[in-house]
Amino acid sequence: xxxLPCIGIxxxxxxxxxxxxxxxxITVKGVVKDNAQQTAMQGVTVSTAKPSxxxxxxxxxxxxxxxxDAGTELVFTHSGYAAIRKTFLSSNSSVTxxxxxxxxxxxxxxxxxxxxKTKETATGSSTVVxxxxxxxxxxxxxxxxxxxxxxxxxxxxxxxxxxxxGTINLxxxxxxxxxxxxxxxxxxxxxxxxxxxxxxxxxxxYGFQSGGAGINPLALIPPxxxxxxxxxxxxxxTSVYGARAAYGVIIVTTRRGKSKVPIVQYSSNFFVKxxxxxxxxxxxxxxxxFRIRTILxxxxxxxxxxxxxxxxxxLSDSLNPxxxxxxxxxxxxFRTTYNQQHNVSIRGGDDxxxxxxxxxxxxxxxxxxxxGFKRYSLSMNAQYAPTNQLRMLVSLSSSLGQxxxxxxxxxxxxxxxxxGSSSSLLPxxxxxxxxxxxxxxxxxxxxxxxxxxxxxxxLSYEPLKGLRIGNLLSYNFNSGTADRFTPSFLSNGSxxxxxxxxxxxxxxxxxxxxFTKTLYNLHNFNAFxxxxxxxxxxxxxxxxxxxxxxDQITGPIGYGWGSSRGGTLNNIRETRQHGYGGSVxxxxxxxxxxxxxxxxxxxxxxxxxxxxxxxPSVSARWNFNREKWLExxxxxxxxxxxxxxxxxxxxxxxxxxxxxxxxxGLPYNNNPTVTIDYATVPNENxxxxxxxxxxxxxxxxxxxxxxxxxxxxxxxSIDNQxxxxxxxxxxxxxELQTNAVSLVNYGMEWSATVRMFKQSKPFQWTLSVNxxxxxxxxxxxxxxLRQLRQEVKDNGSDVPVIYRIGRNAISNLIYHTQGVYxxxxxxxxxxxxxxxxxxxxxxxxxxxxxDPRWTDVNGDYIIDExxxxxxxxxxxxxxxxxxxxxxxxxxxxxxxxxxxxxRDLLNASLSxxxxxxxxxxxxxxxxxxxxxxxxxxxxxxxxxxxxGSDKGSGTVNAQYPNPFDFRRAGVMQPFRSNQTxxxxxxxxxxxxxxxxxxxxxxxxxxxxxxxxCRLTLTANNVxxxxxxxxxxxxxxxxLGRDNSGGYPNARSYAVGxxxxx
Length: 1061
What we know:
22-stranded antiparallel barrel, single chain, 5-stranded mixed sheet, globular, Immunoglobulin-like, 54 strands, mainly beta
């Protein structure tokens, strides 16, 4: 009986406990807004602090509802915003949470050495560019938009070809090798796209990192799908990437799903591209009379002048409709185009499962006739984490690029350049006109395609707390085709068909074991080991058919058996790379950080005497703002100093450079033979290129991060660069590929960001400035030579370069022009012979008034190649950018500018302009007529003019020689481009793009089920400020030669729409 009261009391106690538990549950309702714009935020994650668990996500109106225990601390988080923590003791149905954009630079997430870190614990040098800064301006290649955004990253858009890419160098040039068309061998950074390395330096064409189809791999990535790009500069940040990371690393991260509520986003741009300002020319009658007057004034006699005019039909036969023209050839080649871009993405999910699908279409018609680029892209990724220990990320992307190159190769349009500079007297394009370049630009079929499929599987598993095992497997396949057909009327009555195709594959696998441990919340340890395998293959085939049946049939056979041929090209590649290594990192209370990395790389292209190379690095960081003795300094938001040393390698050459090549030899007794290729001797000592760098930097955040400063200095040496040297014929071989060139780069970088107003103000203005100073010094040449001359073929100027130990890496060999001889009496006279200074030996041409005054370096009274001097430096010393971001309520105005300073350029365009006046009858060196060039007004130039009838004296202190003395111009060549007369300062300031945006009111667009709507007006390649007198200081090669024969940069204007549901 006594047991029953006890049971009753126990039951009553349990009932009260359950009731009390139920009463402790509370319901919290509210809305989350953007603190600056006061608009509702969709996709904000609501989670409990302890234990950390996601319990809700805000809807399209920013609303949320959760039921939790009283006293629970809730955490509100969203990408790019600072988290808000709030504890609720009772139910509340009108909570308003305001999230602010993150302003703590030290908490920014960066990727270094296969790991994600906060910038506070990263010891390497890196800069993050948000994807939002890359998505308002429609371009065919996202690299163009990096110009001026990262200190030390020099992007030169020296080709406006749609689907192509200019040059990109990180911390100076890394090679002095020159391609066949006068461009430096590209040394772009290694791109790592979602963990998969992509080397854009492989299979380059004309120095612009484009495959045989002329389409750069990065042109297949839509900027709208990029979450962020991170540029890694020093060896501490890039060392574990090993092979191919010697020139730096750029990590591209695409978007992921982060919202439980699926987000559908559509963006589009309609844009107009206009050619640059075309030059003014003398047309029709004005040109004819100018040419006739030149002949009458400067021919040897009146009779000779009359005879020359009579035998030049386009001058004498002015009544003939064929020559009586005033044709503006530039209008036939250049055009204004209308283009479009569309992008649709669907993404969503949570920490357990998220997904993203992106569909992109881009269409750009080039400003040169019959050129253009189209991109079709579809990418998908999904992440599945059934438990906290197991994670799987799958990605698949496919893209197709279509490119029309017209009559050129897309990147270089020499036919357009020469045709657009033709005389206005020639008739407009037809089958019978002298200038067929315009017809070729419009009628040559030149279609190119590149298809790419990339897939990856990233698995990781945590069997024990702090120990995670991962494996990344990826496969990339690329197929390129190029089909070109030239009709018979453009090829001397013989049609020509050319077909090209290539196949490239990359198989990559990386396995990693990572261990993380924290002791006493102060000592943080991290270590990992990895093993990496990379297999790469490339093969290209080409077929040429000559004289097809007619212009409507392009194959399959041609009747020109002698010139019709095909097969596999000799640039076949099969390479293997194996790397393994590890890293150890320690930080004490995020105050002192130190990292050690070591990597071993084996390459199939390396000689057998050194199969593996060692690549160590060590780096440290001190966050001194965490020191107790600085705690009272309230104006210091953060401060850190860091330093690093490390080494990286870059594979160079091919397996044939190391082990030689066998080719089909001459028949023996009518039987085929196979012999060794004696063009290049095998080199068993062949090594990869090695970069060793030292870096130090300081970072400061002041006045609650209103002012952020970064300064870095570096020194890096690039050793084992390849260069071919000629061999004596007694060796039996022609050349040897050596690792005998070394180069040093040193300099400094700086960046400053100023936030003008507090974040609570309705008007916001952020100004960012960055810059870099770099010097390059040549330190070693083959056979310990002190200097080496190299001839260069670059579309006509053919100015040689010289490599000289102890000075800048590349210098052009040119004549030093002191001015113009005002009269013949000013010409130096050889006292031993009594003869005036002469051009060359035995030419019989002596200098006179109106001729250029070139320095006689060796004092022999003869101007020849012995008087050439290494003058100028084509590599810029300073480059950087300025970014202004202003916002007032829903309006935004962003202006991005860049600058390049202290660079010497040879103005070949002006040289060619002046040369056209020296051949009024357009007669070639063989006495046969040639196509006449256009004449442009030159009154603005201070050129020499004779004093009356005396042709031996004239203008004093003239800058340019006499352009009209055509009888002497053929030999004297007073306007040759290899002289300081055309050496100019190539510095420029450029307004890259301007973006005006308006974010529509959230309440208004919610009626249409939209969560955001953004309208944009953009202008790209707005204006360039420069004292350079050529067409464009950016349209030049890295050798400092004016590349006006290339594809000009267009100016574009766009209207954009970005809608999110």
